[in-house]
Design brief:
single chain; mainly alpha; Rossmann fold; 5 helices; 42% helix
């Protein structure tokens, strides 16, 4: 990352505020947008379903509306999730893109709605869009969920900074 640091620019923008998105895109005029914006902690969707659904849908709607209003022509790469497939049987693995979509929680419903918005803006307003569905991923900024939480806790136990490995409900197939 150090070798490209001087080539990266960051901009502050509140995707829940259409005016903020319009101002930012008007200034930046991007050729490509990677839309990964979402509250992506599945556990939190059970604690605050309205907040997760409103955030995830509104941020995508505001992005596409700003592009439409400004008549920009970027490629939007919309990052969705495998959660839109819902509960998948072992015999259906590996999952194919043609697999039936059956979201089973507020987060997955919000992500499928994002996909539908992206598709509708592609169809209705010709905004170039690619939709991807990511499966479990890890990165330094996702330390509170998935495997990274376990790994972090195990390291802390080994360094004597923690005594107990905490987890939520685990499900094994």
């Amino acid at each position: 990352m150090e070798n490209i640091k001087d080539k990266i620019q960051t901009f502050d923008c509140d995707l829940n505020d259409l005016g903020s998105v319009i101002r930012s895109l008007k200034n930046i005029k991007p050729d490509i947008i990677y839309n990964m914006a979402a509250m992506a902690n599945v556990h939190s969707c059970f604690l605050n379903p309205i907040s997760v659904i409103q955030n995830n849908i509104n941020t995508t709607l505001n992005l596409y509306e700003a592009i439409r209003i400004l008549e920009l022509n970027p490629l939007v790469v919309h990052i969705s999730t495998s959660e839109v497939y819902g509960s998948v049987l072992k015999e259906d693995c590996p999952i194919k893109e043609t697999h039936q979509l059956k979201p089973v929680n507020p987060y997955s419903v919000s992500k499928l709605t994002q996909e539908m918005l992206a598709f509708s803006y592609f169809t209705s307003f010709k905004i170039k869009t690619v939709i991807t569905r990511s499966f479990t991923y890890l990165c330094p900024r996702r330390t509170d969920i998935f495997t990274s939480s376990f790994v972090k806790q195990i390291v802390e136990i080994e360094k004597k900074k923690r005594d107990i490995l905490k987890h939520r409900k685990l499900k094994f197939n």
